Amino acid sequence: MRRLVLAAAMLGTVSAANAADMPDLPVLRGGFTDGLSKTSRNWDGFYAGGHFGYTSDSSDFGQSVVGLTNYIFRDSVLQQPTSTWSLLSKNTAQSTNFGGFVGRNWQWYDAVLGLEGTYTYFNNLKTASTGSNALDIINPPGDTVPPGAFNHWNVTLTGSATAQVKDMVTLRGRMGWDGGDFMPYIFGGAAIGRMDVSRTVSSNVTLRTDTTTIDGFGNTVIVPGTTNPVPAQSQTQGQHKTNAFVAGWTAGIGLEYCLWNGLFARVEYEYVQFSPIMNTSVTLNNAHVGLGYKF
C-alpha cells in the first residue's frame, strides 16, 4: 500500500513539472494579443490646416445682358423678341488657389462625422465674353401696321460681360470612414463667393415700313420705305458690381492620411455652383492638397 501511494505522488510531481514547461498561450487564458485585433485611428476632435490647388471656372454669359435689353426696349414691341437672344456665350478660366480650413470630427466606431469651415482665395480667376447680333424683326407681336404694310425693325446688339471670383467661404458637413491611417470622406454644404461682375450692351435700331401695291398686270409689288433711326431704342446701358456676395452650394470627395500623431495630409475635389448674379452663372471645379493637425 505504501508503494502505491509513493508511485502516485511521484506521477503527480512529473505532471506538474511538464505543465509548468508548456508555453503560456493567450488562447489558454481566454484572450488574444493586440496584433490579432483591428488597429483604429482616433479621428475625433478639433483640427485646422491650410490648402492650395487649382481651379477651373466655367461661366455662362448666355443671358447676361437680357436685363439691360429689357430695360432699353421696355414698353416697346421689341422687348419680347429680343429677350430670347443669347448674345454672349460660355467661357472658362483657370487659376491657382490657396486657403485654410478648421473643423470638428465626431467618431463612432468606424464612422466619422464632421463640420468644417473653409476659406479659399483665387489668383486672378476672371472670365469674359463679347458678342453681337443683328436681326430684321418684321411686324413683331403688338406692332400696329396698316393692311399690306410691313414694319422692318433692324436691331443690332453688341455686348460684353465679365465675372471675377475673388474668394469664397464654405460651411460643409462631412461623412468619413476610419480606415486606420486613411480616412476617405464625402462632403456637402453652403458656399458664399465674393465677385466683381459687369455687363454692357449697345443697341442700334432703325425702322423701315414697306408697303404693297398692285401693278397694271395684277402683280403684287413691294414698295420699300425710308429707313429711319429710332433714338429711343438706340442706346448703351451698363451695370457693374464690386465685391458682390453670391450664395451657392458645394459638394465633393476627399482623402486624409495620418502622417504622425495628429499631423495629416489631405487631397480633395470640390464642386461649387453659385446662384446667378446679373444673369451670369458661375461654376467652379477645385482641386486641393492640404496639410492639417488634429488637436
TrEMBL record:
Residues 7-295 form the Outer membrane protein beta-barrel domain. Keywords: Cell outer membrane, Membrane, Signal. SUPFAM superfamilies: OMPA-like. It holds the Pfam family OMP_b-brl. One of its GO terms (cellular component) is cell outer membrane. The keyword Signal applies. It is found in: Cell outer membrane. Transmembrane segments: none annotated. Residues 1-19 form the signal peptide. It comes from the Bacteria. Belongs to the Omp25/RopB family. PANTHER family: BLL7405 PROTEIN. This is Porin family protein. The lineage of its organism: Bacteria, Pseudomonadati, Pseudomonadota, Alphaproteobacteria, Hyphomicrobiales.
